[in-house]
Amino acid sequence: MERGQGFSIAGRLRSLRFAWSGLLTLFRTEHNMRIHLAAAFAAVFMGFLFALSRMEWIVVAGCIAGVFAAEALNTAVEKLCDALHPDPDPRIGRVKDLCAAAVLVTATGALVAGILVFAPHMGAIFR
Ligand SMILES: Nc1ncnc2c1ncn2[C@@H]1O[C@H](COP(=O)(O)OP(=O)(O)OP(=O)(O)O)[C@@H](O)[C@H]1O
């Protein structure tokens, strides 16, 4: 936001357009994001199939949002690193490894939460 500019609906809508454009770029350019998207669709499909409770939907939605946000931040830092320091540098490598670790931790947490939410429903089918 530039200094001296007041709040305006048009300004907020413009910011929303930028965020949407970032989201589209993420899905178009990041292969990992397509895997996250496929997992999210599978979780939502199974959520309707098993008629999840409100609390279970909150867990699923939180996991999907968390993984997408982690991947967006990871991609942003990667692009910033490449723009500021295109040459190989062990410090840049460490920064990228740390960001990748953040995505891994988030995705693993989402996987564990997904198993805890869906396993009892699947177990009920085979009982
Ligand atoms: N400029 C660099 N200097 C040193 N090591 C780097 C550099 N760029 C990347 N690396 C190393 O290579 C790894 C992969 O980097 P890259 O930018 O290809 O990320 P990625 O996770 O493979 O990206 P994507 O998911 O977009 O394919 C990094 O985690 C880091 O260890």
TrEMBL record:
The chain crosses the membrane at residues 35-52, 58-77, 98-119. It holds the Pfam family DAGK_prokar. Its cofactor is Mg(2+). It is a multi-pass membrane protein. GO terms for cellular component: plasma membrane. One of its GO terms (biological process) is phospholipid biosynthetic process. It is found in: Cell membrane. GO terms for molecular function: ATP binding; kinase activity; metal ion binding. This is Diacylglycerol kinase. Substrate binds at residue 71. Mn(2+), Zn(2+), Cd(2+) and Co(2+) support activity to lesser extents. ATP binds at residues 30, 78, 96-97. InterPro entries: DAGK (IPR000829), DAGK_sf (IPR036945), UDPK (IPR033717). The active site is at residue 71. Belongs to the bacterial diacylglycerol kinase family. It comes from the Bacteria. It comes from Pedobacter yulinensis. The keyword Ribosomal protein does not apply. Keywords: ATP-binding, Cell membrane, Kinase, Lipid biosynthesis, Lipid metabolism, Magnesium, Membrane, Metal-binding, Nucleotide-binding, Phospholipid biosynthesis, Phospholipid metabolism, Transferase, Transmembrane, Transmembrane helix. Its main location: membrane. A divalent metal cation binds at residues 30, 78.
